[in-house]
Specification:
alpha+beta; 4-stranded antiparallel sheet; 4 strands; 43% helix; rod-shaped; transmembrane helix; FMN-bd; membrane
Length: 148
């Protein structure tokens, strides 16, 4: 075998191997942060109930990069008294970890602010944005006007 044919054979082997590795690299799923079907279906937006001076309203489901976020609010005597996350990113361990620390902070801020003008939780930018959008839609549906 001549030196030229050996080089050609080696180049073909290296090039073919590189091509196969690149193909495998591009086929490897790099993220599980997509949601084909949310684990918890979104609740219908709008007023859920009115009783004993409480008005309970579901916000719209706000799509985010990591899955939908939807909140339910309760208003009593013109004050926001409760904000509960109904739907939030939870498809993977990291999503559940982020939601477990972000959602209580977002709820606390919403109750303190009495509106949707709340800070983004560090490390939970997309969830915070979806939370704000769903919260604002619930406040709008409840015809809630904050004092501030």
């Amino acid at each position: 075998m001549t030196a030229h044919s050996q080089r050609l054979r080696r180049n073909l082997l290296v090039g073919g191997s590189t091509g196969v590795l690149l193909l495998l690299l591009f086929l490897y799923p790099t993220s599980i942060n997509h949601v084909d079907h949310p684990a918890t279906p979104a609740a219908a937006p709008g007023v859920v109930s009115t009783s004993a001076g409480d008005v309970t309203v579901n916000g719209t489901s706000a799509g985010t990069r990591y899955g939908p976020v939807q909140v339910r609010i309760t208003v009593r005597a013109g004050r926001l008294t409760a904000v509960d996350a109904l739907v939030y990113p939870s498809s993977g361990g990291r999503d559940r970890e982020i939601s477990s620390y972000a959602l209580p902070q977002l709820e606390q801020e919403a109750l303190a602010a009495q509106n949707s003008h709340i800070d983004t939780v560090s490390g939970a930018t997309f969830t915070s944005d979806g939370y704000r959008r769903s919260l604002q839609s619930a406040l709008d549906a409840a015809h809630f006007r904050s004092a501030g």
